[in-house]
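Trying the structure run again after the queue cleared.
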Amino acid sequence: MTEIVIEAFEAPAGSLAAAWARQVPTLLARALARAKGLRPRLRLEARAMRPGEPRNGAIAWARGRVVAGAEVEIEVRVALGPAIDDEPALARVLRFPAGELLPRLEGLAAEVCAAIRREPPDAPDAPGALASTSPHAIRDYVRALDLTDEDDAPLEAPDRRRKLELLLLAVESDPAFAPARDALLEAALRAHEKGLRREARAALGLLSRLAPRDARAPYVLGELALLDARPDEETARAAFARALALDPGGPNGFAVGAAKRALERLPPAPPS
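Done. Tokens:
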């Protein structure tokens, strides 16, 4: 296993720019992590590596700059060797509409792998994970990703609510944007675990209306209804039935199958 160090990118001043400076390298590392035999290591603290500084076994380093608005400009430099070199193995400047961020980063990850003589990353498992989207959706998605639980600094309740709000805005801007839907499901479950039950269920209810062909939100709502001190079997039945009515193909497969099994476990509905 070989390692590449990815530092926080430089960005103009401002809280939104800071989110892009952290999340663009994070998303790039996520793409590189699918390359066989390559382990990206993020180093997002402010201190940059100095010329001649060893990389503790890493074979390469990457640092860059990002300017984000309706258009995004990303500059990346990748170097090889036991320490930082002046001569990069790859120097790229990309300019593109903000909504193309994910597919452009995927292409950049393939270029980085080629520069350090590694195989390109495997394709992501989730269909639609690399689709282009609206600039508003990608803006809110990046801002939401920046609100992340850390081992030593879990999110406070206001930040969890803000994360749900941003991801709902991203899905509202583009209901077909699968990464935002995935992140919203995860954020809602985490919020529910942390006691924000009402907010989590409201977010999942809105998600089921914004993306009515996604079976996961109604399925999860059904399961959450059964976790109450007094399980709400009527609400759970209705939610599972909504999931079962959807196409079981693609990402719906697990949710539709699980909803069917959950319905079978429930006692029959009382006669009306």
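The domain at 2-115 is CATH 3.40.50.10070 (Rossmann fold). Worth checking whether this holds up in the mutant runs.
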